[in-house]
Amino acid sequence: MYSDTxxxxxxxxxxxxxxxxxxxVIEKPNIVIVDRNEGPSFTVFCMSLGKIGHDTMIEIADxxxxxxxxTNIKKDYVIYGDTLEYLSRRDIxxxxxxxLGHFAYKSDNDLYxxxxxxxxxxxxxxxxxxxxxxRPDNNTIAILRKGIEKELTMATTYDYDVSAESxxxxxxxxxxFNVLVGMNPYGRITGAAVxxxxxxxVEVCMWKEFLGKLNSQWK
Amino acid sequence: MEVTAITQNLISVLNILEGRMPFELYLFGSVLHSAxxxxxxxxxxxxxxxxxxxxxDTIENHLPxxxxxxxxxxxxxxxxxxxxxxxxxxKVAAE
Lengths: 219, 95
Hints:
heterodimer, A: alpha/beta, Trna Endonuclease, Chain: A, domain 1, 2 domains, five-stranded mixed β-sheet, 12 strands, elongated, B: alpha+beta, Beta Polymerase, domain 2, globular
């Protein structure tokens, strides 16, 4: 099973300052138990990988009793959609350290969904052009639009500004995508980001612009 | 980890890569203003495309137990966004 010497210590140190966290104990390497001020305790598996494989998740889910949350500390990572669905079916929440903070703040152990994904999902579900959508991985969303056969895949970046390196990193991290969408409402897109995207045959735009373009572009 | 320890590690990265590629490192965000930071925001200002990844990899090797958040901009992009001034980023440099 996955193991390291630092992620449980990192979580114990950093999560201790979050609201609603009463106590954190490292039970075993990579496993911590979090006591809330309000709400039930929960068991967390801590890890830090760039690419999170399905078999790794099965091993962790099968190997740890009463597992509630798996957190991945590394910021840039990819986990495929079928693995996320598998964890949901097992009632195990998954997310980065920020997600773990949100989860600890809740007063229950109900399944957690990443806030950024919830935001996008809600917007797409209310968009009149969108028929269906699904997640190929944690960084992309595939969208089927009404009356348009061709599927559109958006990758997201939460960088402060969208730079050439944001585009290159999205290409490395994500499944194939048509458009990279900048999600920071105050963010800008550099000229180099646009030309890098063009050279890869993809587009780049900000979220607000993307919602408008869904009606007419990428047919 | 304290800011001074983070800075020392970043100076080591500057020393290792010095002469191999031109770049600058900056710290910005909560790491400069709060004792209770989670992320370490690092700005890498680089010149050539392939260099950004090498610089990030070297930093990750020096700060393996940290939540690093990189912003990588070319010199032109930094100028275009005025990123250092707007974020009040602090340049990492040997004294």
